[in-house]
Amino acid sequence: MKEELSILTELIKLSKVDGKESDEEYYFLTMIAESLSVTKKELDKLYNKYVQFTPPKEEIQRIIQFQRLILLANVDMEIDSKETRLIYKAGIKLGLRVESIEKIL
């Protein structure tokens, strides 16, 4: 469960970084939480509680997490430079190749 909470923590951090938390972003986060078997109540607690990031062990899960970050950044149809930097740093923490991260961003 710790891995799932840390994944959601990174997504929440991304949703807050531009200073504009939208209903669309929150809805997206609730969908991701549900797919990770995390309740809405647990998700809401994460907005005030930081969980240390623990990258998924499997490469495919790390790629999926990176994809979630990209999708969340695009939910409001505006990508702020702060969001791009956070996604880049998250990609590095996920152990993805720098060339791949840069190409996607």
Overall pLDDT metric: 90
Helices, by number, come to 6
Low-confidence stretches: none
State the share of residues found in helices, binned by percent.
Answer: 55-70%
Structure classification: mainly alpha
Number of strands: 0
Distance between the first and last residues' Cα: 29 Å
The topology string of helices and strands comes to HHHHHH
Brief rundown of the structure:
By secondary structure, the chain is mainly alpha-helical. Helices cover 69% and strands 0% of the residues.
Structural description of this entry:
By secondary structure, the protein is mainly α. The chain is 69% helix and 0% strand. It is built from six helices and no strands. The model has no long low-confidence stretch (mean pLDDT 90).
What does the secondary structure layout of this molecule look like, with pairings?
Elements: H1 2-17, H2 23-35, H3 40-46, H4 59-74, H5 81-93, H6 98-104
Helix pairs in contact: 1-2, 1-4, 1-5, 4-5
Can you give keywords for this protein?
105 residues, mainly alpha, 69% helix, globular
